[in-house]
Design goal:
With about 290 residues, the protein is an alpha+beta fold. It is about 30% helix and about 30% strand. The protein is built from eight helices and twelve strands. Strands 1, 2, 3, 4, 5, 6, 7, 8, 9, 10, 11 and 12 form a twelve-stranded mixed sheet that branches. β2 and β3 form a beta hairpin. α2 runs antiparallel to α6 and α7 packs parallel to α8. The longest helix is centred in the middle third of the chain and has 16 residues. It is globular and about 55 Å long.
Amino acid sequence: MASTEGSAAARDVTVQPLARLDTPALAMLESLVADSGWNQVAADWELFHAAGSIHVVRDASGAIVASGAVLPMNEPAPGASGVSWISMILVHSSQRGQGLGRAVFAHCLQKVRDSGRIAMLDATPAGEALYRQFGFEPLWRLARWRREPRAAIAPALVQDVASITAIVDLDRQAQGFERPHVLAHLLGRPSSRCVRSADALALVRAGRTAHHVGPLLASSEAAGASLFTHVSDAIDGALLADVPDERPAMRAALHAAGFQPQRGFARMALVGPGQALPPGQPAFLHAVAGPEFA
């Protein structure tokens, strides 16, 4: 999740839901991503708009200069609390320091609160300080790793067409909540692949600047690291993975494949009165789908 301003300037900020994701709006949102150096593509915004909501701040000319997204996960099981993911808190570099990020985040958080769900997100260190002010608490930590472009040293990945049901089920066990709409959308893209070994599953998709590996789910870290190495060897170009910190075998595989850590994240949640985090088994999770998707 992108960092946001720590203090707001003395100005009113109007945050509005994006009613239509038309060509001009999509171009402005993609420009925000490029300005921030992030990896999202047009299909990511399409997913947020179709399955959740996008919220924006516009300047006097009507240009989108700040954004946020809310992505509800599937309805919870009886007795459990629902979850909505907040992400894409982006502010154009020319508009930073004016409180736009704080305003759009507060707007997104209110939308989650109004729905009665638990708000969750992955925060950069700068963002974590802000989100703590709203009552968020860290659950665990992860880091983004990047490998610079190189030629593949293994055959191209083969799509496992039967794996969507398996990856949805294992993802639910790991996260504690279900998101088949998100995973199906990611997997349904022409460049995406779901790769499977005996004890591990990984989803690989193209991004703006690099392919992204995640979620990577496995019954053991050794199985996850082995599948990750297989995927990494088969991908041309740059590659990203967001990996929980407590994964020494994954770190060894990352270093061996030429990855370097870029930045840390904290997985955070705001649990309200009468709410409870859905129980998951994060030990199954060896790389996440990305800070924008959980």
